[in-house]
Amino acid sequence: MAASRRHQTACLMRAEDENIAIISGKCRGKLALQAILISTIMEYEALDKDGAPNARENSKRKKQDSLDGTLGHHQYIFGNWKNDLLTDLLAHIDPEAMDMMTLKAMPMETKKEGIECVTDIKMFGDEMDRIACTDKRTLLDSIKRVYEKLGRRLRYLTISVGDGTFAWGESAPWSIVSHVVADDGITVTCRLASWANNGRDHLDVTFTKANFLDDKGPFSLSMPFSIKQAYLVSETTGDNYSVLGLAPGIRRRLVRRVSDEEGATNQVTKSYRTYLKELTEKRSKPKAPTVGLKKLGQGLGVSSAPAGVIAEAAVIEATVPPATPASAAAAGASSSAEGGAAPAGEIAEAPVIAEAPEASAGAAGAS
Question: Is the pLDDT at 211 greater than 90, yes or no?
């Protein structure tokens, strides 16, 4: 009996090791398969006493609640988005490729890199993209359409298991496939992956001495996750060379703004530096005086007045209708018929009569 139990335990342990090895081998580097497996495990752990799976319904309800709301003014630029909003976006555009456990363990900068890679929305640099609308659900839906039009690029990326970052060395859209140093100059060949080339084959772009002039490198690739902003860095001079800037022939095809077409980004691009400069100038600009104070100053011949008088002037201005030449002439004729001028204390009417020369002429004729 005891030997039979030991044999059964040994068989179970051997089967467990084989299953773990199969799962590890099949799921390594496949983000979508990992998400399905993790989701199944979470549903299994969330079973209630009756065996009813509630995890999926609860997750859907929480997701719907998280999509409601309006973005604030500090979220108008995509690069300013914080961790929670970035997580909601990645989970919304492809829930099968990005599960919540992976997203929660992922650093915020990595999420921004992934978003720029799969949606072509600029999350870095001096000219970051701006949102096209403030309603959160509408905006995320439009970005999801952009993601689907570009070919669901998240499914081609690989995540490092250790730190939760994207393995750009293996799955970045741009990579250096050839780097040759010769006496007559240097030759660098950059490759754009086929999944990032709008459904075409991979694209090789070669740069020579004509592009780098006297700079002999060697060169490394920076921001390889960005199809539009990737650039080569010279380790000798420190100079930067934009990949698309060096290859104007392919620039027009690769800078197509699908995000503008789907209403995800604002078509009027404003640099982040310009935005900060305008915001600083707006906040430092002194406020103009109130209309009531200006009118009262004209009547009294002074440039300032107590706060209580300013408030009364504002009330008078709001209640008294504006004077017209006809009404002013009628008022002048009435005062002349009574045989006296307006008292000096009635300062509210004096500026109006003085500012209407036609009314003065009408009053003189009536007298």
Answer: no
Please indicate, yes or no, whether residues 132 and 194 belong to a single structural domain of this protein.
no
Query: For residue 32, what is the enclosing H or E element?
Result: helix 31-45
- The count of structural domains within the chain is 3
Same domain, 93 and 188: no
Task: Kindly tell me the burial class for residue 93, based on how many C-beta atoms sit within 10 Å of its own C-beta (0-12, 13-18, 19 or more).
Answer: buried
Residues recorded for the chain: 367
Percent of the chain exceeding pLDDT 90 equals 26
| Measured distance CA(140)–CA(143) in Å, rounded | 5
Residues 37 and 142 in one domain: yes
Query: Mean pLDDT across the chain, nearest whole number?
Result: 73
Of 126, 101, 102, 132, residue with least CA distance to 114:
102
Residues 97-113 as b/e (b if ≥16 CB within 10 A, e otherwise) read bbbbebbeebeeebbbb
Q: Tell me if 280 is assigned to some domain.
A: no
* Digit-coded pLDDT (tens) for 316-357: 444 445 555 555 445 454 444 444 444 444 444 444 434 444
Task: Evaluate if pTM is beyond 0.85.
Answer: no
Distance CA 131, CA 239 (A): 32
Domain contains 14: no
The pair of three-digit structure tokens given for residue 166, joined into one six-digit string: 């994207």
Q: Tell which of 230, 254, 278 closes a domain.
A: 254
- Please state, in angstroms and rounded to a whole number, the distance separating the CA atoms of residues 172 and 220: 14
Written as six digits, the tokens of 366 are: 């009536």
Query: Would you place residue 258 in the very low, low, confident or very high pLDDT band (cuts 50, 70, 90)?
Result: low
- If one counts every other C-beta atom within 10 angstroms of the C-beta of residue 49, the result is 5
The one-letter code for the residue type at 338 is E
CA 81 to CA 67: how far, in whole Å?
A: 15
Tokens of 264: 């995800």
- 224, 217, 209, 210: which is closest to 176 by C-alpha? 224
